[in-house]
Specification:
homodimer, alpha+beta, Pnp Oxidase, Chain A, globular
Chain lengths: ~220, ~220
Amino acid sequence: MDTAPPLSPTDRSTVRRGSARSRTDRAELYAVLDAGLVGHLGVVLGGAPVVLPTGYGRHGDTLYLHGSTGAATLRAAGAGAPVCFTVTHVDGVVYARSAFHHSMNYRCAVVHGTARVVTGADERLLGLQVLTEHLAPGSWAATRQPDRKELAATALLALDLTEASVKVRTGPPGEDERDLAAPVWAGVLPVRTVLGEPEPDPLLPEGVAVPDRVRGRRLR
Amino acid sequence: MDTAPPLSPTDRSTVRRGSARSRTDRAELYAVLDAGLVGHLGVVLGGAPVVLPTGYGRHGDTLYLHGSTGAATLRAAGAGAPVCFTVTHVDGVVYARSAFHHSMNYRCAVVHGTARVVTGADERLLGLQVLTEHLAPGSWAATRQPDRKELAATALLALDLTEASVKVRTGPPGEDERDLAAPVWAGVLPVRTVLGEPEPDPLLPEGVAVPDRVRGRRLR
């Protein structure tokens, strides 16, 4: 049962452009975040924005982000700079009868907030487990868990999902009435993210088969 | 012939983390940008970063971005606020024998700069053509071009590709020597973006076939 509260819009998390595409169901936020492999983290460094792809994982209403302890963006975010974290899925190219009405079908989640450096040993382990399982479901239990040195080399941030917005576009083009009779094809060319055939590490000892967590993996 | 100058690193466009993954060939920048459908535009609004998916197209060393004239991020960028524009392709999930060495194969281009509002009628038309052709190759010539009202409703920005960086990860996991003998599968699960079967607009008059620009489209 989804008993989560709806997305509560603040000024900056209120969708202004194309508000018909805005979604306020928290379950939709979860769905967009859970379906992504990478997000884009924005931080202000020296007055200018820096946007970098960043791995993440969700645990309830907490988003865990991680990277090297040496990354300037993560250091800034960990020092209390405001961040924006955006996950976008392109679902289709929308072909219209006019250049103007060409568009894209997509799902996009935008999270605003201030990240918190995760310092407690238990939550650090939880966060890394969540991140690993998001990237590679089943890998946490199947592989060697991080030792003390590896833990120390990983910057782990937590971002609350309180202030977030979701925008989704689906369906055929919105066209001008005047163009509808034009003999020009219009519609949607679907765009999908798919998984290919697993490529074993050349260093793998003989006889280690591709496990079902890899072979049977499906993207959400 | 690629006679473009190499990427000239400034302080913020110098790849610091994982510099072995950095590329300095301008042709690689073009390739990563040209292969994307959407980028993430970062702008500072009220001291905080805002990162939104944004359509784009490249013409030589100019990136054209567009959106509604009402979008706050585009207004800020057009008013001279520094921007960061990032295009990322996820190419694979890298499974390792340890949780720590799990990774992602990807190509990522990051462009820093200050955008310029395109005002000249000729360049505005060029920019919209570049954007349309990037999103939907062949559509500019095949569809109705923008009229005066549509042109006025579109904010068009130009971003110079002078200050940019490219980072690419390929190949199997980097592992600790100590883990190599573990009977744990390691390797790469490829991730690909593919196009599906065209879905005609229900309002299409009978007999308008799917054109080759749609049916025969290949992603770069």
